[in-house]
Amino acid sequence: MILSKLRSPIYYKRIPPIYYIERESGKLCREIIPAEQWLKWLYYTPFGNIALESVIKRKSFSDFYGHYMNTSISAQKIKQFVEIFDIDLSQYEKITPKEYKSFNEFFTRKIRPELRPIDQDESTVISPADGKLLAYQNIEKDLHFVVKGYDFLLTEFLNNKELANQYLNGSLIIVRLAPADYHRYHFPFDTKPSASNFIKGKYYSVSPHSIKRKYKTFFQNRREYTILDSKHFKEVIMAEIGATLVGSIKQTFTPYLSVKKGDEKGYFEFGGSSVILLFKEGTISIDQDLINNTKLYYETTVKMGEKIATIQT
Q1: What DSSP designation does 159 have?
Q2: Contact indicator for 158, 237 with CB cutoff of 8 Å
Q3: Which SS3 state, helix, strand or coil, does residue 39 take?
Q4: Active-site hit among 209, 273, 274, 287
Q5: Which of 6-10, 94-98, 143-147 has the highest mean pLDDT?
Q6: Is residue 204 a contact partner of residue 62, using CB atoms and an 8 Å limit?
Q7: Is 130 a catalytic residue?
């Protein structure tokens, strides 16, 4: 019965929409997902999965499309993209589509600093990016509860057993950036960051549909992580996750140089992407609304600079 449904050409079109909670208002909202029918076909049908595993997840495919998005020809896509996702360009340093020389230049646009005020309390952790957030106070207990049957393997994520052992029973925060979001990411507190550690991986999409079908996407994709040494939060791992059509992850910080909360760490080129924060056990208390929404299977919208957690006392 299940197989016959998957073979049906209209089955994936009946898959229910994705909803999230808008943190500021508390409202339940439906997410607009670029190329949603294409993603449903890839992740919910047998032939789509063949295309996904044989072509789409490969680095060469993302590199090819990423190169195109750096060309002047790609700039013609900007106006339509802005209209479809109702992006307010007045919030950014360049305020009209014509000012951008390529789609990637538009995609990595810089926001006006005054529109992302930074919570300056040294006991708080801020969101490192604009996006939709999932939060787990205790990885081993809460993640298994929310995603039944799933085992989050730190050793698999970090590719380092000794390092992974230091974060057992720790806290996990995932911020997913949709293509329409501001795509620069920032430091969540004052810190002195290490150099980036690169881990090879695939290039699955990080859209809600792909996560529902392949939750381990977050931990199998190409990723880079940095260890953030800090006064209040011990050693925190901050990781950037690549995804389908993400040409590259660009780090703009200088390793081992002290930075302030809210300073830019880097940016993603075209595609949806994610930032992960991993804290040691007993370090932070994640804001309760974020925990509650995650337990209800909803992501919560956050903006870079707003408080998402507090030091655990």
Answers
A1: S
A2: yes
A3: helix
A4: 273
A5: 94-98
A6: no
A7: yes
pTM: 0.82
Contact between 153 and 229 under an 8 Å Cβ cutoff? The reply is no
pLDDT mean over 53-62: 49
186 has catalytic annotation: yes
The Cα 212–Cα 178 span in angstroms is 15
Sign of the alpha-carbon dihedral angle for 16, 17, 22, 23: positive
Q: Are 124 and 307 in contact (CB under 8 A)?
A: yes
Q: Which of 186, 196, 205, 230 is catalytic?
A: 186
157 in Cβ contact with 139 (< 8 Å): no
3-state secondary structure of 279: strand
CA 47 to chain centre: 27
Cα 238 from Cα 233, distance rounded (Å)? 12
Backbone angles phi, psi at 234, to 5 degrees: 60, -145
Q: Cα dihedral angle (259, 264, 268, 270), rounded to 10 degrees?
A: -170
Determine the residue type at 148. K
- Gap between the Cα atoms of 118 and 284, Å rounded: 18
Rounded to the nearest integer, the mean pLDDT of the chain is: 81
Q: Are 279 and 171 contacting, i.e. CB atoms less than 8 angstroms apart? A: yes
Q: Which of 106-110, 216-220, 246-250, 270-274 is the least confident region?
A: 216-220
The sign one gets for the Cα dihedral 17, 29, 238, 171 is: negative
Catalytic residue among 130, 142, 181, 287: 130
Structure token pair of residue 144: 């298994």
> Is 181 noted as a catalytic residue in this protein?
no
The number of helices, as runs of H, and strands, as runs of E, in the chain is 12, 16
Residue with tokens 């660009």: 250
**Contacts of 292 by beta carbon, 8 Å cutoff, 6+ apart:** none
Confidence (pLDDT) at 66 = 58
Question: What is the SS3 string spanning 267-289?
Answer: EECCCCEEEEEEECCCCEEECHH
* Residue 161 neighbours by CB distance under 10 Å: 10
Question: How far is residue 246's CA from residue 274's CA, in Å, rounded to a whole number?
Answer: 11
